[in-house]
Design brief:
The complex is a heterodimer.
Chain A lengths: L5 H4 L6 H10 L7 H28 L7 H10 L16 E6 L2 E6 L6 H6 L10 E8 L17 H5 L1 H14 L29 H9 L8 H8 L4 H11 L15 H15 L3 H13 L7 H17 L3 H16 L9 H13 L12 H19 L6 H14 L5 H13 L2 H8 L3 H13 L5 H25 L6 H8 L3 H16 L7 E7 L4 E7 L15 H8 L14 E10 L2 E10 L5 E7 L40 E4 L13 H14 L1 H4 L5
Antiparallel strand pairs in A: 1-2, 4-5, 4-9, 6-7, 7-8
Helix pairs in contact in A: 2-3, 3-4, 11-12, 12-14, 12-24, 13-14, 13-15, 14-16, 15-16, 16-18, 17-18, 18-19, 18-21, 19-21, 20-21, 21-23, 22-23
Chain B lengths: L1 H16 L8 H6 L3 H12 L5 H16 L3 H11 L3 H5 L2 H10 L5 H16 L11 H10 L4 H4 L11 H15 L2 H8 L2 H14 L3 H11 L8 H9 L3 H4 L3 H8 L2 E6 H14 L2 H10 E6 L6 H7 L31 H11 L2 H16 L18 H15 L12 E7 L5 E6 L5 E6 L4 E5 L5 E4 L2 H4 L9 H4 L1 E7 L1 E4 L6 E6 L5 E6 L3 E6 L4 E7 L5 E6 L5 E6 L3 E6 L7 E4 L5 E6 L5 E6 L3 E6 L5 E6 L5 E6 L5 E6 L3 E6 L4 E7 L5 E6 L5 E6 L3 E6 H7 L4 H6 L12 E6 L7 E4 L5 E6 L3
Parallel strand pairs in B: 1-2, 3-31
Antiparallel strand pairs in B: 4-5, 5-6, 6-9, 7-8, 10-11, 11-12, 12-13, 14-15, 15-16, 16-17, 18-19, 19-20, 20-21, 22-23, 23-24, 24-25, 26-27, 27-28, 28-29, 30-31
Helix pairs in contact in B: 1-7, 3-4, 3-7, 4-5, 7-18, 11-12, 12-18, 13-14, 13-19
Classes of the chains: A mainly alpha, B alpha+beta.
Protein name (chain A): Transcription initiation factor TFIID subunit 6
Keywords (chain A): Nucleus, Transcription, Transcription regulation
GO molecular function (chain A): protein heterodimerization activity; RNA polymerase II general transcription initiation factor activity; transcription coactivator activity
Chain lengths: 689, 749
């Protein structure tokens, strides 16, 4: 029983080489071997003695870490001049070097340029000591406030990993004698709700408070205070009085992810950028709904920002889309407070909107959809996060406008800028885009009617044109007084005038019909394999209450995961997603139908049955059956089936899609159109055919 | 190997000399490992008529001759005295063993004589020709010629270094073979023996042997001696022994063991039979064996009490009468009526209070038989402000929450934030209105935790303009401009380790690494006095509950009692063998308790300066002390993470509270004494049911007399609650007058 403790007590003596080295350093050459041995023993003894004294100072300083000042005090105790210049709060970082068969530990002192020190601004003055009171326990019960450690944890292990070692060794030390009943049991805290979907969540308000208001005191203890204030009035008053304004800054905290969280993070990120669409859908759903992700938020944010940075350079459209979908999912999560990470997320999103090149083959690949999608994300974040202090919206608007106005800007970037601006709402379109229509029209004209410069430019110009028409028409329809004169339009808007005029007429007709308008944009991009399904509803619908936040893409993804066929269905091409959005006045209802044509099973679900009088009616394309009843006139479905071939389809409500840019799967589209026509009278007016 | 030889030879010689056993002093002399002893016994065999005195004289002469290397003379003398050559050859240990075997039951008196004689024989070198195994003789004979100066030292006893492990092993085997009931008691001998044998080896420059000895047997020692062993292990040269404090402790103080008479007899018989003179000498020289009559103690009983640097306290050390009762509270005319009525209106129970008051009054009139006389030590007169405070106190006390296992106190935790310089001490005022913190950067900071801010008294020039007749003169002297929530007191030149408010809240004491204790005024926020006396760091200081007096203790191992108006200490309490780490006044101010790094607690009488209690049982330096409000009990916490409870009147350990995993820096009894709160470096506050702990102890006359207490095994039943902080070590605890628990510590992210 004694054997295991013996190594601890064996006498360690400094090597004689050290003595030699030290002697040499003070100019004593040739030191005898015996002298070295004698010296080293003496020195070892003295060092131990001093260390033992220093420990006393550590104990009385109520610390667990021996510091250099303890050693100084111990030296002083022995009437020895203390060592100067070793004032270090942290451990002394001894470096290790070896070479030529010799090993050396040294204390690295960097040479510092004095001018650097003089020129650097003074560091911030450290905060003064302050007192803060909280309730550790109220009549024997520990309140769950941030000042107290989370309940149910053996926080010895969690909070102070270094100390647990001390305890363990102490336990060993005590258990040597059987009469000591000091057997410390170390249980590792494992959350009862295990991987992957649940982690202890913090209230969003708390996250917000922690992230945005470090200067204010978080005083969650005060509610409890009230309850016992009666009994202990004086004390609580003291405590309260003390609490005001004493704590000025939240101490910095580092969050270490638990093993489960690390595993979760790994799985999620892998699934999000992996090849399996089913897994991705599940992962995105998890991100969008899980309440306990705030601790991983910084990691996700960095992941996205780094990912965009790398993949833009490599023109990897697919991955960019995946990352944008992650952003979307994060934004959809109601428990997350993204404010703190916008500085990473917004640049990533903006990059996806305006980057000159996002894919390897700009003429074939549908990067436009990504730009649209990212633009909508941008608009959504502007709406959610823009405040008078951070001015996100105005800053973003400025950025877009600036590059749009630049003559040399490429068509792709131009498209992105316009998309980004127009998603910001009708006001922005009115003030920023409409005045520029003439100039932009001239530019488009120059490309489309002038000598063919390059196919890419032409495609770009086409896209810009359709984008402008799409967004401007509805705005003009609302703002411009009635007589829609083609010539007048041309005079006002230049080259785009006539086409715009016809669009405006259509828009007005629609409005005149007082129909509950359904606008949709379904983007389906199939580039190698990824799928981005976006449904957008209501462009300039009747009430003018259209807001970008109606976009509910991830909610459709959410539902996809409930589809029984998906988890066992590893081949994305075989699956079909049907996303449908109806907009009825100010309210919107969404039905999302997912089905897998290969498995033959189908699941229909309704996301929200809002205040509208609409009854959801859903028909399934593959079966042609499944109507849920209801013969109300204004229902629509959009059924898009995804072909396995590497083609992209973009169906735009405006129907101005140039055929060259997309190849639509004829059957499914036909089916969709057919249903449109048969069931929805309003749809016929939208059909370009 | 040698032991085996010894054994065989022993048998032979025993047969030879069996008949010549005498009852005079020669046997005792033989017990000492010296060749003259053997020769004398040999001589006796030839001349049985020779008287003991002659023998001794002869012996002394022979010793002298031998020391001066006059071997021829020795031979001549020996021949003349009729000592045979056989006797010369007969090995020393064997013959001596036979001799000591002849003194089977000498008892305590015999032991004393033995020790006296052994001191004579200290100077005796191991005689080369007389020692048993020839090889060993050669080895030891060459080197062992002690210096005359060194002979005077206690450690100069010269034994054969090679034999030390054998001696020790022999004893170990013996103790392992005795009956269980004795084994535990006798095992106590191991540690002091080990230490002293090791020190002897080191002292006599047997460096390698010492190392081997240490390595071989250090593992056998009780785990709670580990720290001392570590210090010992670093000491491997004679030069190191000079100036080493631990070493000095061992040398200057006798290690106290309590052993029952039966066990002691057993040990003594064995040592004498086996001629284990080295061990016997050490026991005589360096150990104090406190023999008691009665049942041997069990292992757990022994372990509960042992662990201190110098063994247990002697029983008679704790025999002095301690007046642990409280002083009679001075009668104060309590103008309670008007306020009382208000309170009654609020709470709607008018009847309950009056009888309570009466009972309190009657209680205080009776003189507690255990209380010291009111004037035993002079106490300061009560000032008007003190009386006011007392009234406040009593009023608050009526609103006190009665605590108990079902009614736990609320804990309000004061975290010191941004205390990068290191918070080293905290104190609250009794009325919980002020908090003071001592910091490692030599500053003392005072906070007000009430809305009332801290104000300074105006300067002398401004004060002269004040109308001294006005009613609110006390308000007027304060300088509003200086009002702030906290004040910083600069003056120390080293970390501030101890801090204490005076009971009237006018003064603050702080003790520091710079060796001074400073008295600060909380009216002017300046330093009034620097008390110099300790030349080393002062670890703790504490005001008397009646003010005026204070105690300080530090690295110099002396606790000093001061009065605030004397620049020199009134009393110096010396006796601890290591740093005094914490100090505390008894509630009646007649006694002072000090905890030390020697792992003992001592209680000192302020009047006489005597040490009236030595309490052992902790296995690490003691860092916190607390008296129960009735003065009857004391609690102490140490680095070993255990809280021990003591009955002050009997000087007995009455409880052990296990649960903390690190140093306990804070202990406090609730105002009624039902609950003990402990705060530790392991970031927890624990509450203990002390009422139950004190009730559980059965105190019959026997245990009270012997101090052999059976501690309740499971202290977990007494644990009422554990409250973990967020990486904030708890370094101070305080119960407000209403029994709300305040805790303090520095947040340590």
């Amino acid at each position: 029983m004694a054997e295991e403790r013996r190594p601890k007590q064996c006498t360690v003596v400094l090597p004689t080489e050290s003595m030699k080295a030290m002697a040499e350093s003070i100019g004593v050459g040739q030191l005898q071997e015996e002298s070295c041995a004698a010296l080293s023993e003496e020195v070892s003894y003295r060092i131990k003695e001093i260390a033992q004294d220093a420990l006393k100072f550590m104990h009385h300083g109520k610390r667990r870490k021996l510091t250099t000042s303890d050693i100084d005090h111990a030296l002083k105790l022995k009437n020895v001049e203390p060592l100067y210049g070793f004032q270090s709060q942290e451990f002394i970082p001894f470096r290790f070097a070896s070479g030529g068969g010799r090993e050396l530990h040294f204390y690295e002192e960097k040479e510092v340029d004095l001018s650097d020190i003089i020129n650097t601004p003074l560091p911030r003055v450290p905060l003064d000591v302050s007192l803060k009171a909280h309730w550790l326990s109220i009549e024997g019960v520990q309140p769950a406030i941030p000042e107290n450690p989370p309940p149910g944890e053996m926080s010895v292990c969690v909070c102070f990993p270094s100390f647990s070692i001390i305890y363990l060794s102490k336990a060993a030390f005590f258990t040597k004698q059987p009469h000591f009943h000091h057997v410390y049991i170390f249980t590792v805290y494992i959350p009862s709700h295990f991987f992957p979907l649940h982690f202890p969540s913090a209230p969003k308000e708390q996250q917000k408070a922690e992230s945005t208001e470090p200067l204010k005191v978080v005083k969650p203890g005060q509610e409890e205070e009230g309850s016992i204030q009666k009994g202990q009035g004086a004390i609580s008053a003291e405590a309260k009085g003390k609490k005001e304004g004493l704590m000025r800054m939240k101490p910095r905290s580092t969050h270490e992810l638990s093993v489960e969280q690390q595993l979760y993070y790994k799985e999620i990120t892998e699934a999000c950028v992996g090849s399996c669409e089913a897994k991705r859908a599940e992962a995105l759903q998890s991100i969008a709904t899980d309440p306990g992700l705030y601790q991983m938020l910084p990691r996700f944010s960095t992941f996205i920002s780094e990912g965009v940075r790398v993949n833009v350079v490599q023109n990897n459209l697919a991955l960019l889309i995946y990352l944008m979908r992650m952003v979307k999912a994060l934004m959809d999560n109601p428990t997350l407070y993204l404010e703190k990470y916008l500085h990473e997320l917004i640049p990533a999103v903006v990059t996806c909107i305006v980057s000159k090149q996002l894919c390897l083959r700009p003429d074939v690949d549908n990067h436009w959809a990504l730009r649209d999608f990212a633009a909508r994300l941008m608009a959504q974040s502007c709406k959610t996060f823009s405040t008078t202090t951070n001015n996100i919206q105005s800053r973003i608007t400025k950025t877009f406008t600036k590059s749009w106005l630049d003559e040399k800007t490429q068509w792709t970037t131009r498209y992105g800028c316009i998309a980004g601006l127009s998603e910001l709402g009708p006001d922005v379109i009115k003030t920023l885009i409409l005045p520029r229509l003439t100039v932009e029209g001239a530019r488009i004209k120059a490309v489309s009617e002038g000598p063919v410069v390059s196919n890419i430019d032409k495609i770009g110009a086409d896209h810009v044109q359709s984008l402008l028409l799409k967004h401007c028409a509805s705005v003009i329809a609302k703002t411009r007084p009635l007589p829609d004169n083609m010539e007048q339009y041309r005079a006002d808007y230049g080259y785009l005038g006539p086409t715009l005029c016809s669009h405006v007429v259509k828009a007005r007709a629609q409005a005149a019909l007082q129909a509950q308008q359904v606008n949709r944009t379904t983007l389906t991009i199939t580039q190698p394999r990824p799928t981005l399904t976006v449904s957008q509803s209501g462009i300039g619908g009747s009430g003018g209450s259209r807001s970008p936040s109606i976009i509910k893409v991830p909610s459709s993804l959410t539902l996809m995961s409930t589809r029984p066929g998906t988890p066992t269905q590893p081949s994305p091409p075989a699956t079909k997603y049907i996303v449908m959005a109806t907009s009825a006045g100010a309210s919107s209802t969404q039905q999302v139908i997912t089905l897998s044509s290969s498995s033959g099973s189908s699941v229909t679900s309704t996301v929200a049955s809002a205040t509208s009088t609409l009854q959801p009616l859903v028909k399934l394309e593959s079966r042609g059956a499944g109507g849920l009843g209801g013969s109300r006139p204004l229902q629509k479905y959009i059924v898009v089936s995804l072909p396995t071939s590497a083609s992209s389809s973009l169906e735009s409500k405006s129907g101005m899609l140039p055929p060259s840019s997309s190849s639509t799967s004829p059957i499914s589209l036909e089916a969709g159109m057919k249903m449109d026509r048969s069931d929805s009278p309003g749809a016929s007016t939208q059909s370009p055919h | 190997m040698a032991a085996v030889q010894d054994g065989q030879l022993n048998l032979e010689v025993e047969k030879d000399i069996k008949t010549e056993i005498t009852n005079d002093g020669s046997g005792n002399i033989n017990a000492n490992s010296s060749s003259p002893g053997s020769t004398s016994s040999g001589g006796k065999s030839k001349s049985p008529a020779g008287s003991g005195e002659d023998q001794q004289t002869l012996l002394a002469v022979l010793q002298f001759l031998k020391r001066n290397k006059l071997t021829e003379s020795v031979d001549i003398l020996r021949r003349e005295a009729g000592l045979s050559a056989d006797a010369d050859d007969s090995p020393v240990s064997e013959s001596a063993g036979a001799g000591s075997g002849g003194v089977p039951s000498v008892g305590a008196d015999g032991g004393d004589a033995n020790s006296l004689l052994s001191r004579v024989s200290i100077a005796t070198p191991v005689a080369p020709p007389a020692t048993a195994p020839p090889k060993v003789v050669a080895a030891s004979g060459g080197e062992d010629q002690p210096d005359v100066n060194v002979v005077l030292s206690a450690y100069s006893q010269q034994g054969d270094p090679v034999l030390y492990p054998l001696y020790y092993n022999g004893l170990k085997k013996f103790i392992e073979s005795v009956l269980d009931c004795h084994r535990a008691e006798l095992s106590q001998v191991f540690y002091p023996l080990f230490v002293h044998m090791y020190l002897e080896l080191v002292y006599n420059n047997h460096e390698n042997e010492a190392k081997q000895f240490f390595e071989k047997f250090s593992g056998d020692q009780e785990c709670y001696y580990e720290e001392d062993l570590r210090i010992l292990s670093s000491m491997s040269k004679k030069e190191h022994m000079k100036g080493n404090e631990t070493m000095l402790d061992f040398r200057t103080s006798k290690f106290v063991l309590r052993i029952s008479r039966d066990s002691y007899q057993l040990l003594k018989r064995h040592l004498q039979e086996r001629q284990n003179n080295q061990i016997w000498n050490i026991i005589q020289e360096h150990l104090y064996i406190d023999i008691f009559d009665g049942m041997p103690r069990s292992k757990s009983q022994i372990d509960a009490m042992s662990g201190s640097l110098a063994g247990e306290g002697k029983r008679d050390a704790n025999k002095a009468k301690v007046f642990y009762g409280l002083l009679k509270e001075p009668e104060i005319e309590v103008p309670l009526d008007d306020e009382d009525e208000e309170a009654e209106n609020e709470e709607g129970k008018p009847k309950k209070k009056k009888p309570k008051k009466d009972s309190m009054g009657s209680k205080s009139k009776k003189q507690d038989p255990n209380a010291p006389q009111q004037t035993r030590i002079p106490l300061p007169e009560l000032k008007d402000s003190d009386k006011l405070d007392k009234i406040m106190n009593m009023k608050e006390a009526t609103k006190k929450i009665r605590l108990g296992p079902d009614n736990l106190p609320s804990i309000c935790f004061y975290s010191f934030l941004n205390a990068y310089q290191g918070l080293t001490a905290v104190d609250f005022t009794d009325d919980s209105s002020l908090i003071a913190g001592g910091f490692a950067d030599s500053t003392v900071r005072v906070w007000s935790v009430t809305p009332k801010k801290l104000r300074r008294v105006k300067s002398a020039a401004d004060l002269s303009n004040i109308d001294k007749e006005s009613d609110d003169v006390l308000e007027r002297i304060m300088d509003e401009k200086t009002a702030s929530e906290s004040k910083i007191l600069y003056g120390h030149s080293g970390p501030v380790y101890g801090i204490s408010f005076s009971p009237d809240r006018n003064y603050l004491l702080s003790s520091s690494e710079d060796g001074t204790v400073r008295l600060w005024s909380l009216q002017t926020f300046t330093c009034l006095v620097g008390y110099k006396g300790h030349n080393y760091p002062v670890w703790d200081t504490q005001f008397s509950p009646y003010g005026y007096y204070f105690i300080s203790g530090g690295h110099d191992r002396v606790a000093r009692l001061w009065a605030t108006d004397h620049y020199q200490p009134l009393r110096m309490f010396a006796g601890h063998l290591a740093d005094i780490t914490c100090t505390l006044f008894h509630p009646n101010s007649n006694y002072v308790a000090t905890g030390s790094a020697d792992r003992t607690i001592r209680l000192w009488d302020v009047l006489t300066g005597n040490c009236v209690r030595i309490l052992t049982g902790h296995k690490g330096p003691i860092h916190s002390l607390a008296f129960s409000p009735n003065g009857k009990f004391m609690a102490s916490g140490a680095t070993d993470g255990r809280v021990l409870l003591w009955d002050v009147g009997h000087g007995l350990m009455v409880g052990e509270l296990k649960g903390h995993t690190d140093t306990i820096y804070a202990l406090k009894f609730s105002r009624d004494g039902e609950i003990l709160a402990s705060g530790s470096m392991d970031n927890t506050v624990k509450l203990w049911d002390t009422l139950k702990a004190f009730d559980d102890v059965e105190l019959d006359d026997f245990t009270a007399a012997t101090g052999h207490i059976h501690l309740p095994e499971n202290s977990q039943e007494l644990l009422l609650g554990t409250y973990m902080t967020k990486s904030t070590p708890v370094i101070h605890l305080h119960f407000t007058r209403r029994n709300l628990l305040l805790a303090a510590g520095a947040y340590n992210p």
